[in-house]
Amino acid sequence: MRQDIEFNAEGTTLRGWLFTPDAGHRPFPTIVMAHGFSAVKEMYLDSFAGVFANAGLAALVFDNRNFGATTGDRSLGAGARLPACHHLCENAAGSRS
Questions:
Q1: Which of 60, 59, 83 is nearest to 71 (CA)?
Q2: Which of 4, 7, 57, 64 is in the most buried spot, having the most CB atoms within 10 Å?
Q3: Rounded to an integer, what distance in angstroms lies between the CA atom of residue 72 and that of residue 50?
Q4: Residue 68 or residue 58, greater confidence
Q5: Are the beta carbons of 89 and 34 closer than 8 angstroms?
Q6: In the CATH scheme, what architecture does the domain 2-90 have?
Q7: Sequence spans of domains, the chain
Q8: Is the dihedral of CA 7, 69, 80, 47 positive or negative?
């Protein structure tokens, strides 16, 4: 199952999709994915996330800061996305429903 998600990362709204298995018990082990430079989640991350979900894992895919559906100043490009990565790492243990 795919659901739209968004969360705040130091003032930027990161947007993406959360894929979860159709069967099994929560919480699911979760893989977090984003493209490395200038691509967006629609560029094949959804295909990988679907395979992981079918294998019993959840997958969170998102657009990096300043790209795609995520907010930010597009003129800054990839250089301004590192804080979003730090936010995800620091908050990975948080509870999600």
A1: 83
A2: 64
A3: 27
A4: 58
A5: no
A6: 3-Layer(aba) Sandwich (3.40)
A7: 2-90
A8: positive
